[in-house]
Amino acid sequence: MENNNIRKGKNNNRKKGFFKMRAVIIALILLLTGCMTAGSKEKEQPDTTTVNKYTVSDKASEGQLTDKLTVHFLDVGQGDCVLITCGEHAMLIDAGDNSMGTTVELYLRKQNIKKLDYVIGTHPDADHIGGMDVIIYKFDCDTIILPDFEKNTATYRDVIDTINNKNYKITRSAAGKTYSLGQSEFTVISPVSDNYGDNANNYSVGIRLTYGDTSFLLAGDAEEEAEEDMLDSGQELKADVFKASHHGSRTSNTEEFLEAVNPKYAVISCGENNKYGHPHAQTLNTLRAMGIKVFRTDEQGAVIIKSDGKELTFNCSPSESWKAGN
What is the pTM of this model? Predict the structure, then answer.
């Protein structure tokens, strides 16, 4: 009996040791899984997360600003699409290429957009207006702004046909014209000239958006010649946030233009591993040398910036890669 009890005791000890070891292994697995989850990054981060803040002005904004301004730089691959909301008012600038119409539509519906006060097609290139026919067809649009420049392409004809089928009128862009969007307002800053030949990029509709003490400048794919004309026009260009023109191309974003805009932040909308090599190293080097913090849709997904008229908040931190496109 004594030997049996000893054997039973040894067996019990071995069982206890086994259970302890199994508990340790499970704990280690859970710990490693948690670390891997914490270390992974979602490309598109939710707009409820405030990672970075920037106070534009210490003075109180004039008047009572009650409609928060939100600027969404959507991830549409190698293209442009910007949704701007202020209170119940909304504006869409571009809509990505032909494959992105439904994607942009679903994004707008997720933001509870029922109608659009303004739709701006910066210029007739497919990576900017390709998805716009879907948006114009699916949503009520008050004002549609296009440059006075056309392209003989199926993509451009689709947009014009949809506008006509919906009995909408086209408002041609006019530099210096100011519009209101809720408690915010925007001024058309380009194109300044109508003499750019066949270069569609230089006809891009550009705007400067202001809300309280905060400001944004977006100029489509405007290249160096168009930037020079904006500088020569003497209009206000300074802005806190600058959407890098032409997806960060070296044909745009000249040092002189950036000095006039003097942004704290730049957002680059481009596709991952795109065939154009956007953003170009020259542009990134200029932005870095000027101390401008950069956000990129190819690395971070949708970049969402909120303004209360005094402070800007972001859904992600600035990129630290400074990696040019391949």
Answer: 0.84
